[in-house]
Amino acid sequence: MAIVEDITAEGDRLEDKSISKDQLTIDIERLTKQLTVPAELVPGFMANQDDAGLSRYLNKSLDILYEVEKKVEHPYWEEIEPEVQLRLMENVLRLNGIRDPWSSVEIHSIIQGIIPHLSNSIPLLILPTLKPYFASHPSLSSSSRALSRPVGGTDSSIDLHDVQPFKDPSSWGIINLLSYSVQHLSPVDFEKNIGLILPPTLVLMDDWEPSYRLRGAEILDIWVDKIDEGLMKRMGIDKLLIDSLIHTISLSSNPPLKGLLHITLKVIQKCTEPQSQKRTEYYSEIIEKGMIQGWTYAPSGLEGREVLMNINEMLEGMMEVMGTGIIRWLKNIIPNLLQPLQFPPTALVLPHYQSNLRCLLRVMRTLRKTGRIGRWRGQILNILCRLWVQLKEKRGLEDEDDEINDNKDDIEIDVRTLIKQIFKELSEQVPSVRDDEYRTLLDLSPGMFGDLISSINTTEISS
């Protein structure tokens, strides 16, 4: 059986040779030209997305990419010059992004099978072609060093929003070309070409649209490991990049920019020494601007809840790196986690309650050794007992959708579990609450609080 397969494979290769290199080039060019996204399908400012048109385009692109994948396996493909390969494959690489409306996970997967067949020179060939799409950044000199003052003053970044070629319909997927290029450059080639990489990265990071800011941060995340921190400091771009990231965090965008805090911490940790004053200042700035201000200025309603839940996630991330250092902001943290829990626990707000309680429990455990949680036991017990009573009395809302009701029970069970865990944690940190507050609750209403208190291993209370 193995002999038959070998002969068949050899026969395929001989048959492939019957196609000339020129014909292979023509065939691939004919296919990849069809991958150009029509201008009417490229999302623009205040434009409605054509879902039907995008669906047709995605199906067509999948079929084309399957054919392209077969073509690049031809023996003659490796003989095609890198410049020609780039010309043929530019549209393919522009599609290499799973979040773009004209792309998909399936398309991205096929492209990953095509990429290993491309010349290693293509990333270097791409970079000069990107320059016309991105304006010069006012905080960078012509040699891509950070300026002490932005060209045009502190508001000069606003001028970047006047002309943005990378957002034109003809520029669809141009960010994917930048991403591909930086991802496949060696550290040596990266440092040689940083003047072509840093400006577009910063232009994206300082864009007025949050989605582009996140794309810029994600590109930074790709290449920051390829550059020496000493070079970043000599160029002065370490502070420039970190300030931009922290400013983006402070915007509290909705929908939240997932992964942004991770990227920011990664850059801070690369550019500062452990336990240094500078690192501490950056961490403090993240909490002040991203969380304290975020709690203050979060919008109301569903939009605000999404923002607040993201703040909880970021706070948990900051606890991982700061530990008990968050105690400095405890007077802001605990009230802001407790305050929303006073309202009726409808199905729409239960995910928010779940997030707040999970974060509160994490705060309590992080500060266990400080002994500071005991000062907040009154507020914690007051709010959580009220919430527990409302959950016990609640048996569903008649005006909720079926889909909401399906998910509500699991979330409500988790909320109850989190309340029990917080009560247990509080009793471990402040043993006196077992004899005082918990006993008072049992005396007040054994039926209401019995199962809550019994979840805590306290024989004294039940006696």
TrEMBL record:
Pfam families: Tti2 (PF10521). One of its GO terms (cellular component) is cytosol. PANTHER family: TELO2-INTERACTING PROTEIN 2. Belongs to the TTI2 family. This is Uncharacterized protein. It comes from Kwoniella europaea PYCC6329.
